[in-house]
Amino acid sequence: MADEELNENDSKGQKDWQSETATDAATETKADSDSSDEASTDNGFTVDMDQVEAVLNATADKSSMTPQMKRMMARQEENTRRVEETIKGTKSNPRWFVPLFCILMVIGLVWVVCYYLTSNYPIPNIGAWNLLIGFVIIMIGFLMTMWWR
């Protein structure tokens, strides 16, 4: 009984959104096709895309540029200068740094696994201190990863 009332209420007061969106899309398509001639020449902007690309590539004649294009070119030059300065100021690690911390982590792992499997080696007669040695070697490798640039 509750289902019947629910279905009756839904069908009476429900709006047909699908047909409305279909008609809206049809009118938008018609409007787009009418304005396609205008959009192909202007696109709503006052600057042609070829001119923008020329400015970004710094091949434009500065005397024929609008003030907006001159500002855009100045911003582009400033951004390029900043990126170049950042790249020059970046310090990098020596070539041996990454292989060293990778090898340290692997050696530490092998040390711990070797102790677990044999319970006497890599260094006999020190017992569980082998675990500490292995974990210290692993931690040194992980600490080196924090200094990696």
What would you note in describing this structure?
- With 149 residues, this protein is mostly helical.
- The protein has helices at residues 2-13, 17-34, 36-41, 49-56, 67-89, 97-118, 129-146.
- It is rod-shaped, with a radius of gyration of 35 Å.
- The termini are far apart.
- Keywords: Cell cycle, Cell division, Cell membrane, Membrane, Transmembrane, Transmembrane helix.
- Its main location: membrane.
- InterPro entries: CrgA (IPR009619).
- Residues 1-48 are annotated as: Disordered.
In percent terms, what proportion of residues is strand? under 5%
Structural class: mainly alpha
Which sequence of SSEs, written as H and E, runs from N to C? Answer: HHHHHHH
State the shape: rod-shaped
Q: How many separate helices?
A: 7
Number of strands: 0
**Rg estimate, integer Å:** 35 Å
Estimated helix fraction? over 70%
Q: Span between N and C termini?
A: 71 Å
Overall average residue pLDDT: 77
Give the low-pLDDT segments.
35-40
How would you sum up the major sheet? none
Protein name: Cell division protein CrgA
Main location: membrane
Biased composition (Basic and acidic residues): 9-18
GO cellular component, one term: plasma membrane
